[in-house]
Automatic annotation (TrEMBL):
GO terms for molecular function: DNA-binding transcription factor activity; transcription cis-regulatory region binding. Keywords: DNA-binding, Transcription, Transcription regulation. Residues 22-82 form the HTH tetR-type domain. Gene3D superfamilies: Homeodomain-like, Tetracycline Repressor, domain 2. InterPro entries: Homeodomain-like_sf, HTH-type_TetR-like_transc_reg, HTH_TetR, KstR2_TetR_C, Tet_transcr_reg_TetR-rel_C_sf. SUPFAM superfamilies: Homeodomain-like, Tetracyclin repressor-like, C-terminal domain. PANTHER family: HTH-TYPE TRANSCRIPTIONAL REGULATOR BETI, HTH-TYPE TRANSCRIPTIONAL REGULATOR RUTR. It comes from the Bacteria. It comes from Nocardioides exalbidus. The lineage of its organism: Bacteria, Bacillati, Actinomycetota, Actinomycetes, Propionibacteriales. This is DNA-binding transcriptional regulator, AcrR family. Residues 1-12 have a biased composition (Gly residues).
Amino acid sequence: MAEVSGGAGVRPGGAPRRGRPGHDQASVLRVAIDLFNRQGYDATSVGDLARELGLTKSAIYHHVPSKEHLLERALDEALGELSSALDAVGAEASYSPEQRLRAAVRASVVVLAGHLPAVTLLLRVRGNTPAEQAALARRRDIDQRLAEMVREAADAGAIRDDIDPLVISRLIFGMVNSLTEWLRPDGEAEALADTVATLAFDGLTRHR
């Protein structure tokens, strides 16, 4: 699983450098993600972040080298967690194609709920910076992995095969991504993951 570092660097002796008292890189990152989501990345300045943290603008640079560095770390958190979750699902040799796809849907919900601010930010990037362009390329790779899982489930006869797997993938994971619009940070991730997977695979029709 991706991990947000608590330090801004390493001293020659091996001890992490934590920056100014009261803040470390992890806490700065959390505040930055919140500001980027509230104001938009382009509209948020280093000065805005400094004021939010109660620091001078120059003091921010004791924690992070740039605003784009914070964006990169935030996007890497979301993408790294999702990639790791899909790696774990793919490594389950005992799963059938349908079980693998269901597990991927569940894992996506759990990652989204557990890293809601970072995932929300990821879903809002538009490719305006090199960091955003790199993130979008990684998202496309993930979309292809998910579409391949759909294709494998369709080939196995577990799900319908008359719809383009990429379309199915976009519809299912579009539903997952829409959770960022209303999910609260303290939501029950596991129960919600079960609900989304049930709805995606079993639909709304009551089975008598």
